[in-house]
Amino acid sequence: MSVQRRVMDPVQDPAWDMLVQTNRNGSFFHTSHWATVLASAYRYRPCYFAWLEDGLLRAGVAVMEVDSILTGRRGVSLPFTAQCEPLLADDVSLEGILPELFDYGRLAGWRFLEIRGGTDVLDRSHCNSHYYGHTLDLTVGESALFTNLRDNTRRDVRKAVRTGLTLETRTSLESLKTFYRLNCLSQKARGIPPQPWVFFTQLFNHALSKGRGRLVLARYRGAPVAGALFLHFGTRAFLKYTAFDKKHQYLRANTFILWETIRWYAARRYQSLCFGGTEPDDSRLLQFKRGWGAAEQVRGYCRYDLLQDRFIKNPGINNRLLEKMFGVMPIPVARWLGAVVYRHVG
Q1: pLDDT class for 2, splitting at 50, 70, 90?
Q2: C-beta atoms surrounding 250 within 10 Å
Q3: Could you read off the pLDDT of 194-222 as tens digits, one per residue?
Q4: Structural domains in the chain, sorted by start
């Protein structure tokens, strides 16, 4: 039987998730749950491509159509997702199926097709920017996981234990509101507007409340000082968001949360924990992630111009200037700005 291509909407078609489960690289971000979050929060249109042979998945590429008056109409694989590589059989290459994606995009009126994580499956010369990924092997056991920590990370874990921090894991909107308040504070410290509240409520509705993730808060003397939001699928876990109150960073609460969550996932026989993507110039975050003994990967963003018929580079943006501007912006204004711009950024 010949290979047939289908364009699927996983929000409506349960067959997509069954196909994802058959691929060893399938993650939460490939599933209908993440597709539903993005479609509900930002009104993106799912265009998920599946190449099938005898009912089996030969290749799968998750794409959202972002239709914006500011940034145009384009296909993005996937918005706000650091790791969602195409699902490919061993003898299938992304280069071989890209022409079909380009043809679909042209007919749909896309100007660009963007692929996140492209250095794993495309020539690195095609990528216009890159970031670092870190994946921790949880199968080695708790003792080896602790031994593999960098010395200063191990000291920070012990220090956090001595401070009297307490952790809570609750699946409630009240806990999510607490996390969101901390997230707004930490995004301000980083010079980034927070994602809108509606996005986090969709994460609650389609992930946390369904047992597909964990929300962990750290408290000091009863007050919330840090938090982290994890997502999981199969035996793979992902650290998606962290939050903190800068005034209490000396407590190393995020270190404590991450270590205790590593222990939790390892005890339940999860195989890996992905720490998400990190920009090359974010030296402090890179240093933090490199302290956990995780394997480091370089991943790229690729952007294909469907009119010029070639991979292109993104125009340079003065991130430092934007960070300074957002860093002094009042949180209510930053929240309003995030609610306006994130849908267009994709």
Answers
A1: confident
A2: 9
A3: 999 999 999 999 999 999 999 999 999 99
A4: 4-130+299-345 (3.40.630.30), 133-297 (3.40.630.30)
First to last CA, the chain: 37
Tell which phi-psi region holds residue 200, choosing left (phi > 0), alpha (psi between -120 and 50) or beta.
Answer: alpha
Is it the case that residue 340 has pLDDT exceeding 70?
Answer: yes
Contact criterion met (CB below 8 Å) for 272 and 238: no
Q: Which two tokens stand for residue 96?
A: 């071989």
Question: What gap in Å lies between CA 13 and CA 51, rounded to an integer?
Answer: 15
Question: Among all chains, which residue has been given the structure tokens 């708790």?
Answer: 142
**Quick check: 27 pLDDT over 60?**
yes
pTM of the entire predicted model:
0.92
Q: Where are the alpha helices (DSSP H) in the chain?
A: 15-21, 32-42, 94-108, 142-147, 151-162, 173-190, 197-206, 253-267, 283-289, 319-327, 331-345
Q: Are 191 and 323 in contact (CB under 8 A)?
A: yes
